[in-house]
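Data deposition worksheet. Section B asks for the primary sequence of the deposited chain exactly as it was used as input, without tags or linkers unless they were present during the calculation. Section C holds the resulting structure in token form. Section D is free text for depositor observations; keep each observation to a single sentence. Incomplete worksheets are returned to the depositor.
Section A, Depositor: J.P.
Section B:
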Amino acid sequence: ENTEHKILNVGPTEPWSVREKLCLASSVMRSGDQNWVSVSRAIKPFSETGRPPDWFSQKHCASKYSELLEATEAPK
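Section C:
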């Protein structure tokens, strides 16, 4: 398992894999950024092995999504 993406993570939490972030983003595109119940339910099967059961909790999804938005909007 490569760990390159860990460098990009600034939060105190364990980094999400690129696949997890993509699942989150595409689920938000489908369900909208107000419907975390649906987003969370849709991506639960896609978590990496060894994740805690609440890894894709509504709260975790919402905070990760806003973190991703900030990362893309921040000037490089």
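Section D:
The radius of gyration is 12 Å.
Confidence is low (pLDDT under 50) at residues 1-12.
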